[in-house]
């Protein structure tokens, strides 16, 4: 049969197809597509395929639709080993659970081919994150530029001092509210025990704290929570009508996290379905309002900075200490970046990521610490003894004390080992093929690093399920293999907020735990974590008690 005949037969066949048959052919193709690519990859002589389950039609792997991705990753590694493979997000998704195999992916080299976290997905564009900020930025020159200024903005001693001061202020406010709740007998429904939602309090706390640290805006989340639940005498009819700017921003950011999860995890072809369309429209509205709010806010700050610097130029006797501009993260971003004179648009995503990456992560970490300490009172006692001996029962904490809180830091590290906020992180290279162990993967493979699984692997941690802060004392950095403990990731895309977070959390633990102790209301329940982009605490009920301090 010649070529023309073949074309003729094909065109006749296509002409005879009706809409239903075409639909069936398309669906049939989509149904078998994962198998075609699966069997093709098995026969490709250039590359290898790691063990893993057969893909499912349409979705590739069930955990996209059901269950917790982090938990499913955990089970996959337990079943298939240190390197295993599934289909996810339309990509070959290789899960790695052995720190010895992470050298290339976690490379600290500026020329690493793994500077991207994930491939471009439609949701990233919708969120404006594919070319902005850090987290999902795929534009490498832009990401480098942002990363440099993000990191520099977090490091000046004046910034760290100010953020410690703001954290202490928020702790003092929290302590005052909790004292009021405990002292107020009307709230006491459980005999001598006061039952609180610790997750809600810490969420409000980190929101106020990050509001101050990032943009100098006090959000009043703690006050709102206290007044709503405990201070019934305050009747605020204007509450819904006249939200403070801080509270409006806080609510927008809360919705933003949901928008982020929506656009990242719901495939684009579903956005226009009737029952999802409304949600999509709502989240687009949230993104627009948030952008409008941030641009206005950044413009105002820029004006203040510019007018102060032109006054300073005119006034040679100027005293810098009289500056009205707070040295918070936003000011740092604007002033450190002066040579390139950043526009509000350049900066807004960095500011947004400071909030979104800083509040939920800290809340979950604080709750996991409270959970573990309430189950291990002897460890809590030892931590509080250290806090009291280094700082005393009432003195304010300053940065010079923090390095002496060695056991407190070990408690923090051990909690992050057992409950890492980011149990899986990703690396991706569209450019090169990658050799991992005995497997060779093509470009465009998505590598998922199974941090949560590695943290509980008996090969690297003796009695891995045991809460034992002692493993983080002494020369632990030499004892634990490279990359086996990675609560902040590693390499060029590791967490730029690491030092800042460690400092903040230690300040919070030292300030709060010398005043209060928490007991779980349901001690037999597991920690309620839900994984979306990170592990988020969904509920934590505790009895709160004032700590009885030893009399001097
Ligand atoms: C307990 C607190 C925190 C934990 C456990 C945490 C953990 C992490 C982890 C595991 C990553 C991914 C690292 C990798 O892939 O190698 C990350 C990335 C990131 N974190 Fe954090 N983080 C915390 C707090 C913060 C704070 C306070 C900020 C902001 C000041 C922040 C900003 C970021 C940003 C911007 C990235 C993306 C970096 C990039 O892609 O270049 N994080 N974080």
Automatic annotation (TrEMBL):
Binding, heme: 495
Organism lineage string: Eukaryota, Fungi, Fungi incertae sedis, Mucoromycota, Glomeromycotina
Pfam families: p450
CDD domains documented for this protein: cytochrome_P450 (cd00302)
GO MF annotation: an example: iron ion binding
Keyword tags: Heme, Iron, Membrane, Metal-binding, Monooxygenase, Oxidoreductase, Transmembrane, Transmembrane helix
InterPro entries documented for this protein: Cyt_P450, Cyt_P450_CS, Cyt_P450_E_grp-I, Cyt_P450_sf
Cofactor(s), by name: heme
Signal peptide, first to last residue: none
Membrane spanning residue stretches: 6-32
Entry keyword annotation includes ATP-binding: no
Family named by the database record: Belongs to the cytochrome P450 family.
The protein's name in its UniProt record: Cytochrome P450
Annotated coiled-coil segments of the chain: none
């Amino acid at each position: 049969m010649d070529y023309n005949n073949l074309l003729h037969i094909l065109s006749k066949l296509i002409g005879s197809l009706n809409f239903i048959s075409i639909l069936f052919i398309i669906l049939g193709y989509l149904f078998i597509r994962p198998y075609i690519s699966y069997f093709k990859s098995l026969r490709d002589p250039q590359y290898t395929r790691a063990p893993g389950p057969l893909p499912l039609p349409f979705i590739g792997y069930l955990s996209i639709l059901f269950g917790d991705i982090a938990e499913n990753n955990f089970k996959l590694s337990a079943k298939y080993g240190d390197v295993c493979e599934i289909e996810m997000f339309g990509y070959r998704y290789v899960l790695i659970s052995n720190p010895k195999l992470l050298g290339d992916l976690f490379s600290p080299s500026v020329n690493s081919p793994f500077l991207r976290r994930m491939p471009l997905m439609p949701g990233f564009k919708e969120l404006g994150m594919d070319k902005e900020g850090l987290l999902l930025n795929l534009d490498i020159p832009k990401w480098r530029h942002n990363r440099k200024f993000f990191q520099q903005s977090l490091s000046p001693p004046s910034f760290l001092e100010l953020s410690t001061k703001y954290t202490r202020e928020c702790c003092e406010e929290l302590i005052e509210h909790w004292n009021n709740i405990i002292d107020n007998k009307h709230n006491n429904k459980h005999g001598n025990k006061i039952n609180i939602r610790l997750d809600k309090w810490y969420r409000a706390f980190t929101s106020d704290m990050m509001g101050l640290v990032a943009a100098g805006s006090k959000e009043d989340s703690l006050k709102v929570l206290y007044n709503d639940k405990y201070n019934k005498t305050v009747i605020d009819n204007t509450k819904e009508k006249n939200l403070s700017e801080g509270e409006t921003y806080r609510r927008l950011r809360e919705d933003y996290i949901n928008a982020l999860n929506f656009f990242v995890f719901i495939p684009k072809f579903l956005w226009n379905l009737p029952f999802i369309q409304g949600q999509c429209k709502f989240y687009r509205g949230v993104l627009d309002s948030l952008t409008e709010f941030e641009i206005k806010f950044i413009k105002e700050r820029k004006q203040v900075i510019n007018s102060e610097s032109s006054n300073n130029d005119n006034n040679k006797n100027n005293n810098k200490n009289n500056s009205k501009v707070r040295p918070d993260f936003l000011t740092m971003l604007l002033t450190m970046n002066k040579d390139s004179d950043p526009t509000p648009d350049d900066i807004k995503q960095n500011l947004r990521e400071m909030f979104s990456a800083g509040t939920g992560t800290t809340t979950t970490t604080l709750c996991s610490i409270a959970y573990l300490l309430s189950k291990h009172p002897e460890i809590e006692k030892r931590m509080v003894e250290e806090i009291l001996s280094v700082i005393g029962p009432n003195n304010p904490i300053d940065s010079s004390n923090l390095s002496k809180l060695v056991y407190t830091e070990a408690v923090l590290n051990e909690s992050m080992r057992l409950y890492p906020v980011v149990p899986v992180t990703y690396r991706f290279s569209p450019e090169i093929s990658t050799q991992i162990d005995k497997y060779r993967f093509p470009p465009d493979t998505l590598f998922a690093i199974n941090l949560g699984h590695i943290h509980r692997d008996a090969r690297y941690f003796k009695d891995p399920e045991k809460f034992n802060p002692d493993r983080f004392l002494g020369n632990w950095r030499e004892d634990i293999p490279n990359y086996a403990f990675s609560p902040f990731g590693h390499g060029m895309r590791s967490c730029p907020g690491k030092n800042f977070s460690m400092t903040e959390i230690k300040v919070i633990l030292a300030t709060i735990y010398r005043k209060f102790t928490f007991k779980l209301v349901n001690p037999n329940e597991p920690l309620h974590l839900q994984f979306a982009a990170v592990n988020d605490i969904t509920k934590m009920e505790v009895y709160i008690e004032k700590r009885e301090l030893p009399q001097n």
